[in-house]
């Protein structure tokens, strides 16, 4: 029995809560990445600066989630702690971001 | 998820601010395209994005930040993943299951049926056999 299994036996977790929490966090991330895309489109960012904006925005959103939703204790609500919060659903978030980014870029600049 | 009044107000205010910033940026790009650019310096033609005024940039950034704060602080609820704190919270009533207070996660195990009245059941069976002939 390795250390991780032992730890799981000593401190059992509730799988339903784990799944529900990560779903809530990825919902928040996809919602906020669409909003970040709107901002990037209005600002007229192009290529790398847009993705840099997305990365900074995601970090900001993760900080907000850890502060407001988790009350500063991420390890209570997700297994990996704050790393899980940042890495939650990055690919899906990028999709939503690029979608609204290009949409608003086209809308604002005719 | 129940939104509190301050976060509702924050979301409404920053949405209006964001819409205004979007409209301003649109107007600004219209202004640039309608202004005839001087023929002698083609390099002076502004590239989109680099010429956005500072106030629109700031308005966009501030409104999106406020909107994110408003959305994230509007009462999203997570449950503790460790069984110890979750079961403790359910038993003490801090965490509600399906919106109501329950005695504990393993409440079903506390409910046992009473003793069976075997004599009564045997008598009922005997009566039933008699009626069947």
From TrEMBL, chain A:
Membrane topology type: Multi-pass membrane protein
Keyword Cell cycle: no
TM annotation in the entry: 52-70, 90-108
GO cellular component term, pick one: EMC complex
Signal sequence coordinates: none
InterPro entries for this protein: Emc6, EMC6-like
GO biological process: autophagosome assembly; protein folding in endoplasmic reticulum
Subcellular location: Endoplasmic reticulum membrane
Keyword vocabulary terms for this entry: Endoplasmic reticulum, Membrane, Transmembrane, Transmembrane helix
Alphabetical list of Pfam families matching this protein: EMC6 (PF07019)
Family: Belongs to the EMC6 family.
Protein name: ER membrane protein complex subunit 6
UniProtKB/TrEMBL annotation, chain B:
Keyword Lipid biosynthesis among UniProt keywords: no
Alphabetized UniProt keyword annotations: Membrane, Signal, Transmembrane, Transmembrane helix
Source species, domain of life: Eukaryota
Cellular component terms (Gene Ontology): EMC complex
GO biological process: protein folding in endoplasmic reticulum
Protein name: ER membrane protein complex subunit 5
Topological type in the membrane: Multi-pass membrane protein
Family from the record: Belongs to the membrane magnesium transporter (TC 1.A.67) family.
Main localization of the protein described in the UniProt heading: membrane
